[in-house]
Amino acid sequence: MAPQPSQISGTYTGTLATSGSSFAGDNKTIAVTMNVTSQPIAQASSSQVNLVLAQGAPGETLGVALTNVGLGTLTVQSVSSTGQGFTATPSRARRGLDIRLRDSGARQLSRIGHSDIQCGQWTSRSAGEFHGGEQRYAVQPFQGVVDDAIFEGGDAVTPGGIVALFGDQLSFNTPALGQGSPLGTQIGTTQVLIDGQGAPLYYASYGQINLQIPVNTATGTATVQFK
Fold it and tell me: What is the dihedral of CA 136, 83, 141, 211, to 10 degrees?
């Protein structure tokens, strides 16, 4: 569908017919509605966000950006959300929304919610799916330690370098920053050992820890442990 230059704002209806099939169920007439507007139209950067959290883990916030595929100025007026453990609020610049998923303590291992974003006369929807599991132990994927400047796996990191460490169940505390200089090797109850030596920590959360590799770490392959 595409509006014609002569069409003004409004609602246009038509039909689409399929025919010629030997199976009668294939031959149908489908109603089509096209809305032509001069107003902004919100298109979410993602129609589905997914998150895996162990039960009792602190909530995580995922951002969804909105693109204006219409005319005029796009501003989020309101955001509503449904679903257990699922909340959404407009982002600070009101050009998107922040979806927060958290374990509400229920024993359900899978829950789905959605948010509706109101922008003028248009509503955009973004769904979220939360999967929970039992608390077990920290999990770090292959190449889960990356340079904090480029976030690309496979690149070598160096003693004294700043890295980001990604994974699951890295910390069950509320996300927190490390102390001022000099950095400590513990945030809350979270510690990271590099070849048995405590690493200075900048930030710790359920899925990410930012740290400095100890300057006297030997070159080569190092062992990362969580405490």
Answer: -90
How many of the other CB atoms lie within 10 Å of CB of 129? 17
For 162-207, the DSSP string reads: EEEEE-BSS--SPPEEPPSSSPPS-BTTB-EEETTEEPPEEEE-SS
Q: Which residue has the tokens 């976030």?
A: 151
* pLDDT tens column, 49-79: 777 777 777 777 878 888 888 887 877 878 8
Q: Could you tell me the strand order of the sheet in which 224-226 lies?
A: 197-198, 192-194, 224-226
- pLDDT single digits (tens) 34-50: 988 888 787 888 777 77
* Residue ranges of domains in the chain: 1-36, 42-133, 137-227
Which fold, 42-133? Answer: Immunoglobulin-like (2.60.40)
Neighbours of 208 (CB within 10 A): 16
